[in-house]
Design brief:
single chain, about 180 residues, mainly alpha, 7 helices
């Protein structure tokens, strides 16, 4: 997708189509369900986990919308989304460890099944419902798999944003170029 060099404000939004956004939404919904079922609603952990999951999702959307005028803000917000999901990952790992449960390794059969669902074009919470609504151990490990997949997508997204910025610049450069063209007329 090439950039139109005559435009100052570039196309933006469309975050609903981003795989990273779609996966972060599943992580958010799964985290809400997990906390309802397995973490006390009076626990600070419940609030922290839900807010970290929400932050991951919301920052992808906000970054996508901000991209029209600030690639720096977009990159920063995608980085915040990535950091929030990393925080959430630690919460799930802590939950398993503190409750004497097993953290699945990459070769675990159930982990492989969960990861395989991620390649479905129509993935949603429903795709993972059996796992998310299973035992605490299965649910936590499922969300951990989902977070890893989402983080992988966000890492790729950040790399693409960096490459696009280096190649095409940002708003100030487009504004300067447009002004220069106008002066030359």
């Amino acid at each position: 997708m090439g950039l139109d060099n005559n435009k100052i404000i570039l196309p933006h939004g469309g975050y609903q189509k981003l795989k990273s956004f779609q996966m972060s939404e599943i992580v958010y919904d799964a985290t809400v369900k997990f906390c309802e079922r397995f973490v006390s609603k009076f626990s600070r952990t419940t609030d922290q986990m839900i807010q970290a999951a929400r932050s991951g999702r919301q920052n992808i959307a906000e970054g996508s919308m901000a991209s029209a005028v600030s690639k720096e803000t977009e990159i920063k917000l995608i980085g915040v989304a990535r950091a929030s999901l990393e925080e959430l990952l630690l919460d799930y790992q802590d939950y398993l460890r503190q409750n004497g449960m097993i953290l699945w390794d990459k070769a675990n059969t159930a982990a492989l099944q969960v990861r395989a669902l991620g390649s479905a074009p129509d993935r949603s919470y429903k795709s993972y419902r059996t796992y998310i609504e299973g035992t605490a151990e299965t649910a936590a490990n499922t969300v951990i798999c989902l977070i890893h997949q989402t983080n992988y997508l966000l890492d790729r997204q950040l790399k693409q944003l960096e490459e696009a910025f280096v190649k095409h610049g940002g708003l100030r450069e487009r504004m300067y170029q447009a002004r220069q063209k106008e002066r030359q007329r």
